[in-house]
Amino acid sequence: MVHWAFADASSWNGVIGRLQQQGYTVIAAANPLPGLAADSAYTASLLNQIDGPVLLVGHSYAGAVITTAATSTPNVVRAMSLSYSSAIGLIQGR
């Protein structure tokens, strides 16, 4: 789970608790926020350390981050790889 630009990873605490109660392993990335390229690279590096399939969730600006990070992360589940919560998407080529 990746937070938007005006929050931190703790903004997911309520959702994380509910998912963990259902048996899911959940990681909320601390989005460093220096810019899209660096944020996406950081997120991809975190994802590449996880064994097994990954479902990404991003809120607002993090939608662009997870979209970009997923392109270099082979373990992202392709059938349902990205979940957007009020997210900003990317226009192809931008």
Summarize the structure.
Helices cover 32% and strands 9% of the residues.
Protein model, in words:
The chain is α+β, with helices and mostly antiparallel strands. The protein has 3 helices and 2 strands, in the order H-H-E-H-E. Strands 1-2 form a two-stranded parallel sheet. Helix 3 links the parallel strand 1 and strand 2. Helix 2 crosses helix 3.
Based on secondary structure, the structural category is alpha+beta
Strand and helix order = HHEHE
Percentage of residues in DSSP E strands: 5-15%
In the sheet with the most strands, the strands line up as 1-2
* Helical residues, percent: 25-40%
**Gyration radius, to the nearest Å?**
12 Å
Number of helices: 3
Q: Unreliable runs, pLDDT <50, ≥5 residues?
A: none
Task: Write down the overall mean pLDDT.
Answer: 84
Number of strands: 2
**Sheet of most strands:** 2 strands, parallel
Q: How far apart are the first and last residues' alpha carbons, in Å? A: 23 Å
- Based on CA inertia axes, which overall geometry fits? globular
